[in-house]
Amino acid sequence: EKVGQLLQQVKEKMDEVKKLEATQPSAIWINDLDIINTSLNEIDKKIKAMAEEELELIAENKKRNKKKTPKKRKQRAPARKKEGTTKAPVAKKEVSNSED
């Protein structure tokens, strides 16, 4: 079985070699460049799609994280002292430790 598969692969490769030998080098270059160009276009599309998705996520996060600024509260005037209700200073009592 494997011998048959290997002989088939050899035949396919020989056909490819004959085909390549029959084509001109410039045609091979053009074919290769077309393949590269197609691959690059696919990659560019993927990158563009990823960038658009990222921008959408950023916009969603900005909306979600946007917070309202709290209103500034008016500052209250300091409390007024009532006249006539001031406390008299309390005198400290001296404690003597002497023995009388």
TrEMBL record:
Residues 80-100 have a biased composition (Basic and acidic residues). This is Uncharacterized protein. Residues 59-100 are annotated as: Disordered. InterPro entries: Topo_IIA_A_a_sf. One of its GO terms (molecular function) is DNA topoisomerase type II (double strand cut, ATP-hydrolyzing) activity. Residues 63-79 have a biased composition (Basic residues). Gene3D superfamilies: Topoisomerase, domain 3.
